[in-house]
Amino acid sequence: MDGHLDTFESLGKGTPFVALMRAIIEHIRLFEDFDDSEIEIVAQYLDCYRVPTGTKVIHEGEQGDFMLLLLDGNMEIARRGSDGFPVKIGHAGPGKTLGEMSLIDGEPRFASCIARSECVFGILNRSSLTQIIADQPRLGVKLMMQLLLLLNQRLRLVSAELVRTMSHPASDTERPPLA
Amino acid sequence: MDGHLDTFESLGKGTPFVALMRAIIEHIRLFEDFDDSEIEIVAQYLDCYRVPTGTKVIHEGEQGDFMLLLLDGNMEIARRGSDGFPVKIGHAGPGKTLGEMSLIDGEPRFASCIARSECVFGILNRSSLTQIIADQPRLGVKLMMQLLLLLNQRLRLVSAELVRTMSHPASDTERPPLA
Asked: From B110, which residue of chain A is nearest by alpha-carbon distance?
């Protein structure tokens, strides 16, 4: 499960990246309403990595149990279409979280994420989330509420887009970010 | 906000409905992995109502802050299409939860829910959820995790359907349950 992490350059825990997180805080929806000390605590539970351009960090269809917080660089999100070829369905820059769905349910990845530049990211896996909830219940609840808000917002966007697409099947407007 | 509740026949707290909840437990995804005592506790935080056939229980576009757990009866879920006419996008039977998105973000309702028979349901609003978390942190975390799983599963379904619809724009197959 997510064995590819072993092949990435490990940068240790997130603590050395707290300053970077603060610099991009306005883009980190996950940390909305988190104060500095809360960010520092969450950072202790993140495992950070650096990968070169072109690295596939998350593989569509593979089991996964972590969420990724992109700290530096850009990623492309792609999913195989019905013809088997990958279709770009979104992109992500610093502050964006990716892979929350598998963090939550441990089911196969919905899409792939490929580094389009050198990328630095922190990952939060299921056991770290459980640990935060056990060690810091108040902060754990806050983090879960942020995850709920994130998924919820995405569900609203995707649902509205689906209804729109179904009522205008020939539409060729911009696709929404899916992952 | 959700002022319509005042117009429904109030049946009090959920405690008298615990036996009914147990009878339909296999259909209540929200209570997956909940034991009897946990269901009894959550029931104390539910406000229950009965409405006659035809009642619009949730109004698309209106502010809302509660989730509904359908205990008896059937509801139709509808959303206005681009022509302004309501389109049925799903239906719900006993055990189904509706309206989670507005419980979580307090934003306007995505769709309307209309009773297609006499219905009995419990509602959990934002302040009750906050209260459960404060009073019973372990149970509160479990409930939040179930909500995360619910939204997550729905996001996977809707996202997959959107990708499918976009690659087959002329498809006229069954619509997925959206709400």
From this structure: A156
Residue A71's nearest CA partner among A93, A55, A102 is A93
Which band of pLDDT confidence, cut at 50, 70 and 90, is reported for residue A173? Answer: very low
Locate A100 and state its tokens: 């929350």
* Beta-bridge partner residues of A86: A80
Please tell me the pTM assigned to this model: 0.86
Q: Are the Cβ atoms of B151 and A152 closer than 8 angstroms? A: yes
Residues in chain A: 179
Closest Cα in chain B, distance from residue A172 (Å): 9
pLDDT at B168: 65
Mean pLDDT, rounded, for B43-52: 97
Predicted pLDDT at A61? 94
Domain ranges of chain A: 3-167
The rounded distance, in Å, linking the Cα atoms of B41 and B139 is 9
Distance CA A8, CA B43 (A): 48
- Other beta carbons within 10 Å of B47: 18
Residue of A nearest to B152 (CA): A101
Indicate the residue type of B31. F
Work out whether strand A47-51 and strand B66-72 pair parallel, antiparallel, or are unpaired: unpaired
The CATH class, in words, for B3-167 is: mainly beta
Count of Cβ atoms closer than 10 Å to residue A159 Cβ? 25
Cβ(B117)–Cβ(B53) under 8 Å?
yes
